[in-house]
Structure formats: structure tokens, C-alpha cells
């Protein structure tokens, strides 16, 4: 039997209710802050990610699903959505007429990673991008919105961790300082870090090898090498967060896996998630638009791992698949056509109604099935019931039942719902 591809999974109806709850809450809160939805394509030209995320990132170096189409164009399944959203913003001239354009998205992303708990090859992000301003209030307000969202879905035990990763004025100098520090131990570093040392030494902070981690704890931190403008920007972001009494930690060694970040970088970590403890990540990307060939347009955003969030809500009693409101039973083949007609009328009145053709099963078996489906009402459409075309309406909670005429179904249902 054919199964789903490695690293991809089904979200079954029992879980889908939780996903809907997360998405509906996100839409409601993001909307309150003036964010509008954008839907970009699942595949883009490969160059968008090479230039946007950067050749030195793990994503571009080894995790992309890249293929040639029939005309030989190189396409890539989106591994993230910040570069595509910036592309869409530039291409559609979305910035005209407004200082800040606030966009959100939700959907699947693809990375060829080693699957494990909380890490998939097809995973799902809910993300936001505020494009057009480099003001620190944008960073702070977007983080505040995020924390409101997380508290609305009653998540606690989170850690908001921030850093500033500098800008083209101060990062090159810091990079040299870091390389000077690491060079003498280069032979002791893991193979990945030896490669990183040449292409992007800041990525060594993300190494999981214990010996390297220990060494990196002693490494000079970006925080101490920021230029005046970056230092002030970061202080102002923190100033807003302090004013709103938002709790955060500063991790001077926090670096992000994508090359476009400048200044503010942040993550929300959840220890109970285990090894893949990053619930979300984000930051400022003021150089991305130019990298894509556009004008200088600053931006700030984050993306949340929806699979990880849904996992955290697993033991919650959030709504799962909706229970059936009315199950209509047709005990005979002859009654089925009428049953479907009654069901159609009820649905027009906004009821959730289910009819399963199974006249070969006994009435008792069909009643048991309705009970298992969580039906509030059962409507038995039987030519024999109550003589000439009567129907039986039964309230499952207490077994109360009435014999009614077809034209009474909606009104009796209404009356019995209140009873
Ligand atoms: P990212 O840190 O690469 O950032 O991904 C954001 C979140 O997506 C992660 O914190 C994690 O929860 C989830 N995630 C990433 N990879 C996987 C995976 N293989 N399986 C399950 N979940 C995963 C970005 O993607 C940036 N575009 C965020 C951003 C938006 N920065 C500015 N704006």
C-alpha cells in the first residue's frame, strides 16, 4: 500500500479542529492590528531563495526541494515565506500610499531536513511581515501582537529571547573579531563549523556539538560590537517592551539561520517541545528588498511553526471535529429520497445534517451509529412511521421523541432545541 512521503503527514479530522482554532485566533488578532492576508505561490524561482535567504544558509545549501520544469527553469518549493512576500510586495507595488504594509500568511513550507519530533519536511507556518518602516516601534508592536496571540490561546511557559545581529556597518568588523577568536581552534571544530568559519562564522553559534557549543560560549558577542545606530535601535525596541511589561531575555549569542536578518532577531522557545524547542522565529530584514533587486524597503516579521503549536495543544480540550447536529435515518431504500430532501431543507436553515445510506442495517444499529457520531437529534424518515409519511424526531440527550409532519421539521427542531 502506498504511504505518505517521508517527512510529510496527514492532519486528520480529529486534529483539524485544533488547527482551525489556531488559525481563526491568529486571523482575529492579526486583523485587529491591521494585518491583511496574502497568499503567495507554493513554488518560486530558485533564485529568489538563493538571493533572499543566502547561499551560506543551511536552507539554501542543503535543504531545498529544487527541480527543473519542462522548459528547464529552476523552481523551488518555498522553504519559508519572507522572501516570497517581499517579492510579491515589490512586484505588485504594494507599498504605494501607505507607510507600513502589514501582511500575514499561513500555509505549508518545505525543507529537506532529517525528520524527527517537531521537524517535518512539509511543515506549516503562520507568519506576518510588516513592510516599509525601520522604526523600532514596528518591531515592538509586532512582538506585542505575537505575545497577545500566544496568551489568547493560553500558552504559557514560553521564553521570548531577543538579540541584535547588527547591520552592514558593524557586522563585518564583528565577523573578523569572531574569526580571529575561532581560527586558533579551527582544527578542533566540527566539520560543519569549519565550513561555517569561511562562509558565515556567525552560524557557529547554532552548532549542536557539545565541544563547539562550549567554545562558543566564550566567543565575543555581537552585542558588544554593535554600531551606535544599531545599539540605539535595539535599546528603543526594548524600551517599548519594558513599557508594556513584556517579559523577555536577551541572548547575545542568538543568531538566526537565514542571512537576511539585520538588527532585531528573536525567537520564542518552549522547553517542553524538547530538541526542536523553537516555536517561532523572526526579526528585521532591512536589506532583503535590495537583495531581490528592488529599492531599499525595510521589514520586520516572524513565522510560527504551526505543527509545533498544534502539538503543544494536544492535551487540551479544544474543539475537535464538529459533532453531528442532526442525523437523518432512512430505514428503507424507499425512504432515502425523502430523507435527503428533508436534510437539504434543514441545511438551508443552517443546520449540520448527515445522511448515510445504509438501509441494509437495522434501525437499532443506525441509532447506535448516530449516538457514536454525537448527534443531538435523530430524525427517522419512514413511510410507515405514524402512518402516511410521518417522521420521528428524537432528542438524544433525554430520549424525548415526537411524531411530526414533514413541514413541521424545522419548527419542532427549534422548539426541542430550547427544551
Ligand atoms: P525559521 O526560524 O526558519 O524562520 O522558521 C520559523 C519557524 O518555523 C521555526 O521556529 C519552527 O517553529 C518552524 N519550522 C522551521 N522548520 C521546521 C520544520 N522542518 N518542521 C517543523 N517546523 C519548522 C523563517 O522561516 C522566517 N521566514 C521567519 C521570519 C518571518 N522572519 C521574518 N519574517
Give a short synopsis of this structure.
Helices cover about 35% and strands about 20% of the residues. The chain is α+β, with helices and mostly antiparallel strands and about 425 residues long.
Strand-pairing-aware structural class: alpha+beta
Strand content: 15-25%
Largest sheet: 8 strands, mixed
What are the distinct ligands in this entry?
A: histidyl-adenosine monophosphate
Classify the helix fraction into a percent range. Answer: 25-40%
What's the helix count? Answer: 14
- Termini separation comes to 50 Å
Low-confidence region ranges: none
By DSSP, the count of extended strands is 16
- Molecular shape: elongated
The main sheet orders its strands as 1-5-6-11-10-9-7-8
| N-to-C SSE string, H for helix and E for strand | HEEHHEEHEEHEHHHHEEEHEHEHEHEEEH
Mean pLDDT: 93
- Backbone CA Rg: 28 Å
Amino acid at each position: 500500500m502506498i504511504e505518505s512521503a517521508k517527512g510529510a503527514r496527514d492532519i486528520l479530522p480529529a486534529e483539524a479542529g485544533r488547527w482551525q482554532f489556531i488559525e481563526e485566533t491568529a486571523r482575529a488578532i492579526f486583523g485587529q492590528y491591521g494585518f491583511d492576508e496574502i497568499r503567495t505561490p507554493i513554488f518560486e524561482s530558485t533564485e529568489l531563495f538563493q538571493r533572499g535567504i543566502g547561499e551560506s544558509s543551511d536552507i539554501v545549501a542543503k535543504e531545498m526541494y529544487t527541480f527543473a520544469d519542462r522548459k528547464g527553469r529552476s523552481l523551488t518549493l518555498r522553504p519559508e515565506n519572507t522572501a516570497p512576500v517581499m517579492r510579491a510586495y515589490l512586484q505588485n507595488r504594494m507599498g504605494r500610499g501607505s507607510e507600513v504594509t502589514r501582511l500575514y500568511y499561513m500555509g505549508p513550507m518545505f525543507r529537506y531536513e532529517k525528520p524527527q519530533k517537531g521537524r517535518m519536511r512539509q511543515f506549516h507556518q503562520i507568519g506576518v511581515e510588516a513592510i516599509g518602516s525601520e522604526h523600532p516601534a514596528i518591531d515592538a508592536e509586532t512582538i506585542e501582537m505575537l505575545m497577545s496571540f500566544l496568551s489568547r490561546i493560553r500558552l504559557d511557559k514560553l521564553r521570548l529571547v531577543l538579540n541584535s545581529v547588527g547591520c552592514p556597518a558593524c557586522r563585518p568588523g564583528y565577523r573578523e573579531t569572531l574569526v580571529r577568536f575561532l581560527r586558533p581552534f579551527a582544527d578542533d571544530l566540527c566539520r560543519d563549523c569549519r565550513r561555517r568559519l569561511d562562509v558565515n562564522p556567525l552560524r557557529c553559534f547554532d552548532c549542536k556539538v557539545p565541544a563547539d557549543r562550549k567554545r562558543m560560549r566564550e566567543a565575543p558577542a555581537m552585542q558588544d560590537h554593535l554600531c551606535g545606530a544599531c545599539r540605539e535601535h535595539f535599546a528603543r525596541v526594548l524600551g517599548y517592551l519594558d513599557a508594556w511589561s513584556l517579559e523577555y531575555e536577551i541572548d547575545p549569542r542568538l543568531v538566526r539561520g537565514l542571512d537576511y536578518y539585520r538588527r532585531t532577531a528573536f525567537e520564542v522557545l518552549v522547553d517542553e517541545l524538547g530538541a526542536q524547542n523553537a516555536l517561532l522565529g523572526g526579526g528585521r530584514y532591512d536589506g532583503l528588498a535590495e537583495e531581490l533587486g528592488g529599492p531599499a524597503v525595510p521589514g520586520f516579521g516572524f513565522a510560527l511553526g504551526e505543527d509545533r503549536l498544534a502539538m503543544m495543544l494536544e492535551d487540551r480540550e479544544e474543539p475537535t471535529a464538529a459533532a453531528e447536529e442532526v442525523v437523518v435515518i432512512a430505514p428503507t431504500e424507499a425512504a432515502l429520497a425523502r430523507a435527503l430532501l428533508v436534510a437539504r431543507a434543514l441545511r438551508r436553515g443552517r443546520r449540520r445534517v448527515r445522511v448515510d445510506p445504509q438501509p441494509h442495517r437495522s434501525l437499532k444499529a443506525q441509532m447506535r451509529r448516530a449516538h457514536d457520531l454525537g448527534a443531538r437529534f435523530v430524525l427517522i424518515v419512514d413511510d410507515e412511521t405514524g402512518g402516511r409519511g410521518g417522521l420521528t424526531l428524537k432528542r438524544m440527550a433525554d430520549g424525548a421523541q415526537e411524531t411530526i409532519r414533514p413541514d413541521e421539521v424545522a419548527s419542532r427542531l427549534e422548539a426541542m432545541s430550547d427544551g
